[in-house]
Design goal:
The structure holds two protein chains of two kinds. Chain A is mostly beta strands. Chain A has helices at about 40-45, 195-200, 270-275, and strands spanning about 5-10, 15-20, 55-60, 65-70, 70-80, 85, 90, 95-100, 105, 115-120, 150, 180-185, 205, 215-220, 235, 240, 250, 260, 265, 285-290. Chain B folds into two domains: about 5-70, Gyrase A, domain 2; about 85-205, Cyclophilin-like (Cyclophilin, Beta Barrel). Chain B is about 20% helix and about 30% strand. Chain B has four helices and 13 strands. Chain B is elongated and about 55 Å long. Classes of the chains: A mainly beta, B alpha+beta.
Chain lengths: ~290, ~220
Amino acid sequence: MTDRAVVVVRAGALTTVQDLGRTGYAHLGVPRSGALDPAAVRLVNRLVGNPETAAVLETTVDGCALRPRRAVTVAVGGAPCPVKVAGRPAAWGTAVRVPAGSVLEIGAATRGLRAYVAIGGGIDVEPVLGSRSTDLLSGLGPPPAAEETVLPLGPDTGTAAGRGPVDAPPWPGPPGELVLRVRLGPRDDWFTAAALRTLVTRAYRVSSASNRIGLRLEGPALERALHGEPASEGMVLGAVQVPPDGRPVVFLADHPTTGGYPVVGVVREADLGAAAQAVPGTPVRFTPVR
Amino acid sequence: MRSTAPRALRVGERALLVELAGGEETEAFHAELLRRRAAGTLPDVREIVPAARTVLLDGVADPDRLAAELSDWEPGPLPARVGGAIEIPVRYDGPDLAEVAALWGVSVEAAVRIHTAAEFRVAFCGFAPGFGYLTGLDERYGVPRRATPRTAVPAGSVALAGPYTGVYPRSSPGGWQLIGTTDAVLWDTGREPAALLAPGTRVRFTAVGVVTGAGR
């Protein structure tokens, strides 16, 4: 049994292995998947000296706890949260050393939803179609972490001391209001002019039914100008799909590759990381961009 | 039939949705895209996703420029049928087979003959990795989805909905009409391509075992 591994001591509400996703297979029905807040993944990987593409853990709401079998360098980022090593407070957002056998405790997010845990060497589960990400829609990649799950690590790429400073701008934190820039189309003509006005002028709220597949919103329904069931067509990350109840859903990483509800607009990819950190109840406003 | 030029719609910052007149035009356009990509004359595109009457081009650096280029394309010929169709052996024992036969106004045996006589083509994938939407049945054999979807459809179920035939690559909820089962491996990430039923693949279903139409 290799000691190049960490053992999950507490899995938390939902802890998955994520990297930057599984691209190039959408035509076979394979979602992109990958971390919902990729900027946070890039940063925590750089902090421990990993390539930005290394696999990390994505926690949800209440963190997780890990016990490395050998000493490792870790960095916790994304949603701010208390970090402890062997019961003692440790730093969030910077490289931290965890001795072999000590427990790394990532506490509940104090703001935001999803914390990211990079470990030196990266999580080295078997890649599937070029990615180690857990895809909750289609079941590709490793299953969500459970108590006693053993996660293998890749070879460490250096020492923390040799890595030098990381030029990371301070994270602005999860927004009090989520502002999503949206470009209308391709199916805005399926909606009434009043509905398009509603979308970009009225307030929505993040629904607690949101998940890795989509950010579900509560608020005014969008009225259709065209009725019926549109033919299934390809979907992109950030697509604002409108199901029959009229409440928009913003597609996140595990979204289906094709869909049969009209897409009124597409949110800028750069705004989706903040969307992934918005807690239920957060006010949401769409602003139109060309 | 191909007089209508494809219409390219912008999808966000980095994608185009190309609308075509019908399934055949979509197949021809998709084949043309793959030809141009293989020949290195298509700008970098991360994903090419065909669907019923559209092809999505995602991860395009300059979508407006590509849209302008597309409008000048002469639609190429349909791809040659190389190597014939793959065969999928099916036990026609699905719980909805009798109902499908009734919808078609034929006997169960005749329904199986209709399904095994057709040559299918994978128009596109979606719903789940390796789930292909196969066209090839005559229009009059379209069937509605079930009013109440099943919470668990077994892997390998051969099913009908609308104009399509599909095979469930793994157990999942589903509302299609189940007409049979196959042992064919639909999805294997150790295989290239992972999907047995990748877009463009031609398919024939063959009947194995006794046609019962029972099991309801």
